[in-house]
Amino acid sequence: MTALDALLADAAIPTSSRSFDVAAGLRRLAADAALTSPNPDLARAAQAQQRLSVVSRWVLNEPGAASHVDRLAEDPAQAGEEPDPAAAAEQLDIDGALVFGCLLYLTGHPESAEFWWKLAAGAGHRAAAYCLHLRHYELGEDREAQHWFHQLIQSMDDGADDGFFEALEVVAKYVGANGSTASAPTGCLEAEVERLASRAPGCGIVHRPDRRLADRLHHFASRR
């Protein structure tokens, strides 16, 4: 037997006299497909995470974002006081709360971001409600995600800016397909967030940003 004959013999497909069970074979193929197909819930969570990152970077890079955080920044005389969410909702710059929440999300503090987004959304901020909608889908929390979607839709019932949701969706899809020039937070900005987090370890960042972080955000904005 030549080397070629031996190779062909090894490659021969074994045959069997038993009949092939087509139904069982199809069931095995379906099971294999189920194992390799992406879980729709996981796919939706990944899409929500991608869109939330896009929206957060967009918000952080908007003109005036740093100025809103300026107005949100705490009075040094009040630093260290326990936050009063009810009073904060009345006094805070809600655009600043949105920006601060987006900065926290992008720097690895999503739970703290939720706190600030809820303050802003509770004051009627549509983009904050959209961020919460995406955040809960990212966590697989459908009921909560639908709650914030409903809040967003209700806020549009007056007919004002009724293209808001569609515009955000278009932006997210476009950036997902084409990339974005919106800058991610720099290492220096991340360091300022970590400094704030160290003031209340384990409790989240529920106190206002301070002057030092606001100044760093202005520096971040000036470099773009």
Descriptive report:
The chain is an all-alpha fold and 224 residues long. It is 67% helix and 0% strand. The chain has helices at residues 3-11, 22-36, 40-60, 65-72, 85-91, 94-106, 110-122, 126-138, 142-155, 164-178, 187-197, 211-222. Helix 3 (40-60) packs across helix 10 (164-178), helix 7 (110-122) runs antiparallel to helix 8 and helix 8 runs antiparallel to helix 9 (142-155). The model is unreliable at 10-15 and 76-80 (pLDDT under 50).
Give the CA-CA distance, first to last residue. 73 Å
Number of E-type strands: 0
Quaternary: single chain
Percent helix, as a range, is: 55-70%
Task: Supply the number of helical segments.
Answer: 12
Give the averaged pLDDT, no decimals. Answer: 78
Structural class: mainly alpha
Instruction: Give the overall form.
Output: elongated
Task: Tell me the major beta sheet.
Answer: none
Strand content: under 5%
Radius of gyration: 26 Å
> What's the helix-strand series?
HHHHHHHHHHHH
Any low-confidence stretches, pLDDT <50, length ≥5? 10-15, 76-80
List the helices and strands and how they pair.
Blueprint: H1 3-11, H2 22-36, H3 40-60, H4 65-72, H5 85-91, H6 94-106, H7 110-122, H8 126-138, H9 142-155, H10 164-178, H11 187-197, H12 211-222
Helix pairs in contact: 3-6, 3-8, 3-10, 4-6, 4-12, 6-7, 7-8, 8-9, 11-12
What brief labels describe this structure?
224 residues, mainly alpha, elongated
In short:
The chain is mainly alpha-helical and 224 residues long. It is built from twelve helices and no strands.
